[in-house]
Backbone:
């Protein structure tokens, strides 16, 4: 678990889409940064807040860690042919990879929603403090991440401030997008393998209905299936 947090602004889905679209046309990160700043000028008046937002978008889609460029490039190719649900799943994959705090917070939300239909910000705060320690930057990031995933339509506001409701899972049609989510999960969890029986019920991927089958991994580039005792496990090649 990294000490670095970094997710300091709420991010709208339209902004993520725009970052991907600009990066498709222009690979130079300085030009992408300039184009995003121009796009957000009327949406975020404060130069400071706009710069922070652009930096988050750039980290997600452009300036990725060298070991993750292949995953990002796969995401970009899928984005070109994805429907709206799949675009969100693609962004989700890359945000998990770029921001470990996002992965951990969404895992907590997913676990809570597996137990009940709603959750509160205080529940998530208590659990994330146990993992990351209590600090003001974490509280700030928690608010921004929960607000972001709410605006993306994966959860909704409850009857009182700080209360949230789960929503019906989003269907993903393309097998390749589902596999991208699993790859991002394995990369960010730093697990060496994943039991197949867990694949369709990962807390971090709570917004998405995957319905993956063993055959979906057979022959899929980048994955291997192996036996571990009585379990079939999935590993990255």
Residues:
């Amino acid at each position: 678990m990294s000490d670095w947090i970094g997710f300091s602004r709420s991010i709208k889905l339209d902004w993520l889409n725009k970052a991907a679209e600009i990066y498709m046309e222009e690979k130079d990160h300085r030009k992408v940064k300039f184009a995003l700043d121009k796009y957000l000028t009327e949406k975020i008046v404060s130069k400071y807040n706009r710069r922070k937002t652009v930096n988050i978008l750039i980290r997600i889609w452009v300036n990725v860690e060298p070991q993750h460029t292949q995953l990002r490039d796969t995401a970009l190719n899928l984005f070109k042919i994805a429907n709206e649900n799949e675009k969100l799943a693609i962004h989700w994959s890359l945000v998990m990879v770029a921001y470990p705090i996002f992965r951990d917070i969404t895992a907590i939300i997913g676990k809570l929603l597996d137990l009940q239909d709603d959750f509160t910000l205080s529940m998530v705060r208590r659990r994330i403090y146990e993992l990351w320690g209590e600090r003001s930057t974490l509280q700030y990031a928690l608010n921004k991440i929960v607000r972001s995933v709410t605006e993306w339509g994966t959860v909704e506001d409850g009857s009182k401030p700080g209360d949230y409701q789960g929503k019906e899972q989003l269907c993903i049609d393309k097998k390749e997008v589902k596999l991208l989510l699993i790859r991002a999960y394995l990369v960010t969890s730093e697990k060496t393998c994943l039991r197949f029986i867990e694949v369709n019920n990962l807390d971090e991927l709570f917004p998405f209905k995957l319905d993956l089958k063993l055959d979906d991994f057979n022959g899929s580039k980048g994955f291997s299936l192996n036996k571990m005792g009585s379990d079939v496990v999935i590993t990255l090649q």
Notes: The chain has three domains: 13-94, 100-166, 173-236. The two ends are 23 Å apart (CA to CA).
